[in-house]
Amino acid sequence: MTFRLFPLLAALGLAVFASNAGADTLLMERTQKEAGMSMPTRGMTMAQVESRYGAPLSKLDPRGGGKPQHPVINRWEYDNFIVYFERSHVIDSVAKRADSNEIGPKSRH
């Protein structure tokens, strides 16, 4: 009985490993593609971003700003990424997630 169970468990383990390896490859490919994607960089002004990338699809409601320790954060949404501004300067740009299984900002459209 245990002799027949071992090949079944080995095959099951191999199948799980193979499916995870495929997912890792896709995520690695997407990460490499994003590295080559042109996105706004830290320190750019709102005017520079709009001049270089055009008008955003939407300008999301600002957050924060109640105290000096909590400056206003603005978010602009483009086709493939979202830009985060502290006051009027870029602090980060984040690529949108490709599918519903990924972790990252969702598209609002």
Q: How would you briefly describe this protein structure?
A:
It contains 2 helices and 4 strands; from the N terminus they run H-H-E-E-E-E. It has 109 residues and is of the alpha+beta class. It is elongated and about 65 Å long.
Describe the structure.
It is a single chain. The protein is 39% helix and 22% strand. The chain is of the alpha+beta class. The protein has 2 domains: 1-36; 40-109, no CATH class. The protein has a 4-stranded antiparallel sheet with strand order 1-2-3-4, with no helix packed on it. The longest helix is centred in the first third of the chain and has 35 residues, at 2-36. It is elongated, with a radius of gyration of 21 Å. The model has no long low-confidence stretch (mean pLDDT 79).
Give the low-confidence spans.
none
Please, what is the oligomeric state?
single chain
Average predicted local confidence, pLDDT: 79
Radius of gyration using CA atoms only: 21 Å
Query: Could you describe the largest sheet, including whether it forms a barrel?
Result: 4 strands, antiparallel
